[in-house]
Fold this protein.
Amino acid sequence: MNTRALPLYATVVIFLLAYLLCWLQFPNILSTRVIGNLLTDNAYLGIVAVGMTLVILSGGIDLSVGSVIAFSGVFIAVILRETPLHPLVVFALLLALTTAFGAAMGFLIDRLAMPAFIVTLAGMFLARGAAYMLSIDSVPIAHPFYKTLQSAYWLMPGKGRLTLIAVVMLLTVLAGMVVAHKTRFGASVYALGGGEATARLMGVRQGRTTMLVYAFSGLMAGLSGIVFSIYTGSGYSLATVGTELTAIAAVVIGGTLLTGGAGYMFGTLVGVLTMGLIQTYIVFDGTLSSWWTKIVIGVLLLVFILLQKGLLSLSQSRLAAGG
Amino acid sequence: MTLLKRIAPQLVALALLVALVTVFYPDFLKIGISGDRLVGPMIDVLKRGAPVALLATGMTLVIATRGIDLSVGTTMAICGAVAASAVAGGWGLGPALLLALAAGALAGLWNGLLVAVVGIQPFVATLILMTMGRGIAQLITEGRILTFTDAGFAFFGSGSLLGLPVPAWLWLACGLGMAALMRRTALGLLVESIGINRRASALAGVNATVLLIAVYVVSGLCAALAGIVVTADIRGADANNAGLWLELDAILAVVIGGNSLLGGRFSIIASLIGALIIQTIDTGILLAGFPSEYNLVIKAVLVLVILVLQSPRIAGEWRLWRDSHRASREAALQRGAAK
C-alpha cells in the first residue's frame, strides 16, 4: 500500500465524516445552496492554496501571499479609480506584477541560500507596505464590468448558485493538478522537495525550478487577489491578514508533507473545503463563537502533522529493515 | 572588549539612525523632567520598545538553537487575557501575574515538547499555537476587550521607577540578566552547541532535549512579560490585536543583532540593540512627520539588506573574489621582484 497517499485518504475520510455529522444535525447542509456558498466563500483561499501547495511540495514556504492578495485588491481599486483602463487590462498588469514579485523572491532564496520563510517574510512586509502606500482606506470598486462579474453564476438544481469565482477556483485546482502531476516542472518540484542534493544529481535545474515555483505562487496570489476583490467589491490594505497561515493549514490538512516532496493537489481542495465546512457548521449552529474555528483548525493541523510524523518514521523504519 | 567589538555594527547603526532622526526632528535627543520622571522621545523609545526587546531576548535563544518561535505574539495575547481576567475577577495582583507567567511557561512547554520530543520542525510546531492561540485568548476574554482598573497592575505598563518607565526597567533587567546567565555560566555555550549540531552535542553529553524545551519555555516566559506590559499599558486585554505582528519584529530584532538564523553563536545584547533600532525607526518615522505607511517598506528593505550580508553564498563568493584578487596581486609583486 502506498503510505504516501495515506494522509490524502485520511483527509477525504475526515471531510466525509464531518459532512455526515453536520448533515445528521442539519439536513440542509447538503443542499446545493450551501455547497455553492461553500465554494464561493472559499474561492480565494482555494486559489492561493494551490500556489502554496506547489511551494510546500518544493520544500519551501511562502509567507507573502496574504499581503499580496491585499495589495492586489488595493492596486486594482486604485488603478480603476484613477485611470480609464478596462479591468481586464488591470488584471493582466497585476498578474504580471505579482508573478515578477514571486520570481524575484524565488531568485533571492536560491541566490542567497537563505531560508525561504525569512525571504518571503520580507516580501510580506514589502507587499503590505506597498498596499498601505497606495491607500490606507478601503477603496470601493464601482466599475460596471465588476457588477457583471459579481452577478455571473450558473443555477444548479436545487437553486444553488455556482458563481463565476467558484468556477475559477475549481479550474485553478484542475490546472494545479496538471502542473504538479503531469509536467516535467512538477516532477522537478517533487524531486527538489524530496532532497536538494539528490534532485541536483538527477539533473533538476535547482535555481530555475525554485524561481518558477515562487513565480507560480505569486501568480496564484495575484489571481486570488482578483477573486477576492470581486468577492468583496473593494480593495483594502488591511484585508486578508493571516491568510498565509490559513493557506498553509489547508495544504497540511490536505495531506501534503510540510517538509516537501509528497502530497497531492486534490488534497488541498479537500483541506480548503474542510476548513470551510467548520466555518459553515459554526454559522449553522449559531451558539458557538467564531473563534472556535481557529482552535479546531489548530487541532486538525496538529493531528495531521503528528500523522505525517508517524507515517514518516514508519516508512523509514521499513526502509531500514530492508523492506 | 570582545563584546564591544561584537556589538559595534549595531551601535553604529543605532547612532546613525538617531542622528538621521535628529536631522528631521531636532528635539529627538531632548530629555526633560516632568514631576519625578524623565520625559522625551528617547525615553519613549525605551518604553515603547519594551515588548519587542522582551520577545527578542527569548527569540535570540530559540534562534541560537536553530529554531524559531512564531507563537510569541499569540502567547502575549493569551497571557494578557489571563492576567486581565484574573485582575478583573478580583484575584489580586500577585496571583494574576503568576497565572500569566504560568500560561506563558505552559505555551513554551507545549512548543518545546513538540520540537524536542516529537521532533517537528520548529517553525511548523510553533505555527500550531500561532493559529490556535488567538482563539484561546478570545475564549478567555469571551470575545470582548477586557478592561480593568487596578492601579498596581497598570504600574507595569505606565508607572515609573527612579525616573525611567517600568517597562524599560523590565526589559533591561530581563535582557541583561539573561545575557549574564548565559555568558557567566556554560549555558550559552551549550545552547550554541545545540544550534550548530544537535546530534553531536547530544553525543558529547549535552542534555539537548531538556535544554531545547527550556529555551522554548524561556521564550514563552518572555512573551508573558511582554503581554503583561502591553495589557497593563492599555489597561485592557485585546485578544485580537495584542502582539499582532510582534513575532516578526522580534525575529527582525534578532537578525539586526547579527545573529544567524542558521543557529549557533548569539548575542542577546546585540538583539536588544536591534529592538531599539526597530523602535527608533517606528518612533522616528512618526516624529519626522512621514506617514507611518512607510514603516513596513523600510523594515522589508532592512531585512533584505541584512539577508544579503548574512548569506552564506554571498560570503563565499566574496571570499573567493578577495582571494583571487590577493593572489593576482601577489603574482604581480613576484613578477616585479623577478625583474
In short: Chain A touches chain B through 42 residues (CB under 8 Å).
